[in-house]
Design goal:
6 helices, alpha+beta, Helix Hairpins, five-stranded mixed β-sheet, 2 domains, about 240 residues, about 5% strand
């Protein structure tokens, strides 16, 4: 295939743009904030689990306290009823029974109130732990949010860079002859490099020096004849030192 030296030099510019796009895409995929965010997954899971466990404990304690309060209120109502019956009773036997029940109810009320007090104290300790867990989770969420914002901002910048490179590439590609561009794209898709410089006796496609015979053959080739890197198969563009 033949192509003017200028067309071949345009290939190098195209390859430089493709390299710049590849570097930008790698930067986008390998943002340090992205790795840091991924590394926080375990910390976030642990903080969330601690928060939820204490939340469940608080709910269970609150439910127990509520049941005890209802039981205490029921006992109080029964005591109030029995006291009214005792005050109105004219039967010694009935009065004795009511008095015994009142004593039992008083003991039951004391037991319930003691248990309620214990639960309320435990509930207060749990709430202190819950507040600390909530603050820890909020701190992790805040750091995650900051990282996500930093990632989004970096992505916007890189995407703008990629869009600019793509626009520049499209304009450059339009200047290339069709068969030369097709060959470049085919080689780039297969070996990762479409075109590279030949500087002295070194191919930048392979970063290796050519054998004297290979170099002699290339130098004997007309300037408008396409030549290839013996090691990689990429188009070699001869440039002046």
């Amino acid at each position: 295939m033949k192509a003017s030296p200028r067309q071949q030099l345009l290939l190098l510019e195209l390859q430089d743009l493709d390299n710049a796009q590849a570097r930008a895409r790698r930067r986008r995929a390998q943002l340090p904030e992205r790795a840091e965010l991924a590394g926080m997954q375990g910390e976030h899971s642990a903080a969330k689990e601690a928060f939820m466990e204490l939340q469940r404990e608080l709910d269970a304690q609150s439910a127990d306290i509520g049941r005890l309060e209802n039981d205490v209120e029921t006992v109080r109502q029964r005591r109030a009823r029995d006291e009214q019956l005792l005050a109105a009773s004219t039967s010694p036997k009935e009065a004795q029974a009511l008095q015994g029940e009142l004593e039992a109810l008083a003991r039951r009320q004391n037991e319930l109130e003691d248990r309620e007090l214990e639960l309320m104290e435990a509930n207060e300790e749990t709430r202190i732990g819950f507040d600390a867990a909530a603050a820890a989770l909020a701190g992790v969420d805040a750091r995650r949010s900051q990282l996500e914002s930093a990632i989004a901002e970096a992505e916007r910048g890189i995407d703008a860079e990629l869009a600019s490179l793509a626009e520049e590439r499209a304009g450059l590609a339009a200047e290339l002859q069709r068969d030369l561009l097709d060959l470049y794209e085919q080689l780039r898709g297969r070996i990762g490099v479409g075109a590279a410089r030949l500087r002295g006796n070194v191919s930048e496609a392979s970063n290796m020096a050519l054998a004297p015979a290979e170099l002699s053959d290339i130098r004997a080739t007309a300037p408008d004849e396409i030549v290839f890197c013996p090691g990689t198969g990429a188009i070699l563009v001869r440039v002046e030192e």
